[in-house]
Amino acid sequence: MNNISRIIIRIAAAAVIILCLYYIIMTNAQYKKAAEEYTALNAYTENTETADIMTVDYDSLKKINGDFIGWIYACDGGISYPIVQSHDNDEYLKRTFDGSKNIAGCIFADQRISGFNNYQTVIYGHSMNDGSMFRRLVDYKDMEYCKQHPYFYIYADGIRRKYEIFSVYKRPPRDSVLVYEDRPEERPGLVKDIEKSSMYKISAPDNIISGGGAVVTLVTCDVSNDYYRIVVNGKRVE
Question: Per-residue pLDDT tens for 86-128?
Fold first, then answer.
């Protein structure tokens, strides 16, 4: 190998290192900016008697973003974010609540389902390396974690909805969500099929409050294998 070849290789290697460092710096900067934004948004909520009983300033949040439909609280506060719903499922993949471009994105409801009016609502969020957004859902692969954190909460339309987790599974993206037509006769089958899909047995009671938002399905990436999605399903008990 002549000197020119060695110089070219060294330049190329240096360029790769510089690009990697630039990517890391920019990614961390976006993580920081998103964290600051969502921390500030928590000022529009207030815990009352216990951590999972909150008041939410719906009107102010709606003024910030007209796509706002509710707030999710899970994992003892490890997840506490506004929920949006757009005309498609791509807009908030790389946009935060205030519309800024950011890889953290925003927690959003599936555009195919009408907010919390349907029997089932599907909600997506990224699994970020810094532990933010829906990253904590990955912990539900551990049955003990599920036993310790069996509930999550949705605040929407001035109503607090409490959900008990009854199924946790992982699947490829295309098959990750079980969604049936929103017909009463199909609802028992949907719940049973979701329950059967669980990677471990969860002792959740059969009671469920029917109506809009009776079942909420939370979806995120599996950090150990991006090909799969982690799906956490809750049935409304309050």
Answer: 988 899 999 999 999 988 899 999 988 777 888 889 999 998 8
Residue 35: Cβ within 10 Å count: 15
Ordered DSSP codes for 63-81 = HH-TTEEEEEEEGGGTEEE
Q: Name all domains of the chain by residue range, CATH numbers in brackets.
A: 44-236 (2.40.260.10)
Task: Please give the model's pTM, rounded to 2 decimal places.
Answer: 0.86
For 221, counting Cβ atoms within 10 Å of its Cβ (0-12 exposed, 13-18 middle, 19+ buried), the class is buried
Decide if 177 contacts 206 (C-beta within 8 A).
Answer: no
Q: Distance (Å, rounded) from C-alpha 107 to C-alpha 238? A: 22
Tokens in use for 7? 């110089």
Per-residue model confidence as pLDDT tens digits over 171-209: 887 777 777 666 777 777 888 888 899 999 998 777 787
Measuring CA to CA, how many Å separate 226 from each of 82, 112, 123, 138? 24, 24, 18, 12
In the numeric block, the tokens 């510089």 are attached to: 18
